[in-house]
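Hi again,

Forgot to attach this to my earlier email, sorry! This is the prediction with alpha-D-ribofuranose bound. I've pasted everything inline since the attachment limit keeps bouncing my files.
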Amino acid sequence: MSAPKPILIDTDPGLDDLLALVLALRSPAVDVRAITVVAGNVSVDACTANALRILEAVDINPPPVFRGCAKPLSPSVTRAEHVHGDDGAGGVSEAWPVQHLQIESAHAVDAMLDFARRHPGELTLIALGPLTNVAMALEQDPAALANIREIVVMGGSGDGRGNVTPKAEFNFYSDPYAARAVIRSGLPVTAVGLNVTEKTLLSRARFHERLASMEEGTLRRFLFDATGPYFDYAMQKRGRDACPLHDPLAVGAAMDPSLIRTQRMVCDVVDKKGPDRGMMTAEPAGDASDAPTMQVAMEVAAERFLGLFLEVVCG
Ligand code: RIB
Ligand code: CA
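Structure tokens for the complex follow:
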């Protein structure tokens, strides 16, 4: 097996972020060098506590965790407590208090840039929340951020669909200024959007069946407790007892790029108030195109990804 791919994860834990972090932390294919936290699904403090919580539940030698931006660059704030619970952890935070881990003192944006400078051309940055931290890093030191080998973003959609509005996906809707800055930066961005993540539906029954065969321990109990409300919300919202693995697929695409097929596109994000706020547009990049382009995931090997996810997370 080749050496694990060194990665940084920028995240707004949230329940699918927690599943993505477990996938990355238990996978031999990637080496999580650092976790940076951004406000998104819930407040940055709640997201930060959830990152520490999942590190304690996974019980490995933890990567450093850095607290990042508390507010979007865009003028208004959008949260998703109705999906992830007020605490971002399905309401289990009181039953699962952070025991001993602490965050680093540096700001997430400074840490992201420092890692990029110290490991030129090596690191893959996986962004699982609003792109506020990444956009701030881009603004603060674009030359340093250009050292990042690839930026895999869970956000937008290759077919214009949305989950906050009919046209806008949550991460891009939450901070469209930041999303637009990053996807038009010319950096090597790959967008893993709703058009593929919504095909990776994990049913509660299948997840619980695999949890049941998992060795007894903290992680199994935490995953069982925390994910209940995520399935409940999916059932209430879509009438199916299965949830899309949005953030885990972005990690999966970094672990095994063959899981997705991408197309080089010229993209934009609507950063104006109004019905199109946060909408991502994507046009195939012509050869003559000199506009900044990025890769957009257009197809996914969904069942192969679900099998990989369950194998790594549940053992
Ligand atoms: O639209 C899905 C994305 O928004 C996921 O990253 C989820 O965690 C929320 O942040
Ligand atoms: Ca997320």
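The longest strand covers residues 260-269. The chain has one domain: 5-314.

That should be everything now.

G.
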